[in-house]
Write a structure and sequence with these properties.
Elements: E1 20-23, E2 29-33, E3 38-42, E4 49-55, E5 58-67, E6 72-75, E7 84-86, E8 121-127, E9 131-138, E10 144-150, E11 159-164, E12 170-172, E13 181-183, E14 193-196, E15 199-202
Parallel strand pairs: 6-7, 12-13
Antiparallel strand pairs: 1-2, 2-3, 4-5, 5-6, 8-9, 9-10, 10-11, 11-12, 14-15
Length: 203
C-alpha cells in the first residue's frame, strides 16, 4: 500500500510477520517483525534515529538519539561523544538500584577488559579544561589498583597518588609499595604529619 496523503483507519493496522511498515520514498526507515524479533531499520546512510517527546507542552523535544555515523546513543545531546553519552544542564545522574531487599541482589557498575593486552579498567572524574582523577586497574603495571591525577587521568598515564598491589601492599607517594603500608616522602619531605591541640609532629 502506497499512501500520498493521510490514512485514518478506524481499526488497528496489522502487519504480518516478515512484512514491514516502510517510510520514505526510498524505504528510508522500516519496522518489521520476523516472528521472533522486532526490528527498526534505518536504510539511509548516516541518517540518525531521533526520539521526540511532548515535554510539558513543548512538542518535538528530543529525548534520545542514535547517531548512525558513529553507532552512539545520546540522551540530552544530539552529538554523542561516547557509546552512551548522557548530558543535562542540571544534575546529571545515572542510577542502578535493586528493588528487592533480599540476599544476592547486587547493584554495581562493571568495567571489564578483553584480556592482558587491553587498556585500563577505571572510573574517571574530570573537570573540563582543568584535570581530574582516575580510579581503577593499571593493566600495564601488574594489575595494580591506582588513584591517579592528571588531565584527563587514567591509571597508567597520570600521576599516581595511591597504589594497591594484588598482594595487598598500599603505597602513598610510590607505585611500588614494598610493605603493607609504604609511604614515600620524595625529596626529603616529611611523609606523615599529626596535629593535636596546636602541636605538630612530622616525620
Amino acid at each position: 500500500i502506497v499512501a500520498t496523503g493521510n490514512i485514518l483507519p478506524s481499526e488497528d493496522v496489522r502487519i504480518l510477520d516478515g512484512k514491514a511498515a516502510r517510510f520514505g520514498t526510498g524505504n528510508d526507515f522500516s519496522i518489521y517483525n520476523d516472528g521472533s524479533d522486532t526490528t527498526l531499520r534505518n536504510s539511509t546512510s548516516n541518517q540518525d534515529i531521533i526520539f521526540l517527546v511532548n515535554d510539558d507542552g513543548a512538542a518535538n523535544t528530543e529525548a534520545m538519539r542514535i547517531d548512525a555515523s558513529t553507532n552512539r546513543v545520546g540522551i540530552g545531546t544530539d552529538a554523542p561523544g561516547f557509546k552512551l553519552d548522557v548530558q543535562h544542564a542540571g544534575d546529571s545522574v545515572i542510577q542502578t538500584r535493586t528493588t528487592a531487599n533480599s540476599s544476592g541482589n547486587d547493584a554495581y557498575f562493571r568495567a571489564a577488559l578483553a584480556g592482558a593486552s587491553a587498556g585500563d579498567a577505571f572510573i574517571q572524574f574530570d573537570i573540563d579544561s582543568v584535570g581530574g582523577y582516575a580510579l581503577g586497574i593499571d593493566n600495564s603495571d601488574s594489575d595494580k589498583f591506582k588513584l591517579t591525577y592528571g588531565g584527563p587521568a587514567t591509571p597508567s598515564t597520570a600521576n599516581p597518588l595511591m597504589t594497591v598491589t594484588t598482594t595487598g601492599n598500599v603505597g602513598i607517594g610510590t607505585d611500588s609499595p614494598e610493605r603493607k603500608l609504604h609511604i614515600d616522602g620524595a625529596g626529603g619531605t616529611a611523609a606523615i604529619q599529626i596535629d593535636k591541640d596546636g602541636d605538630r609532629i612530622a616525620w
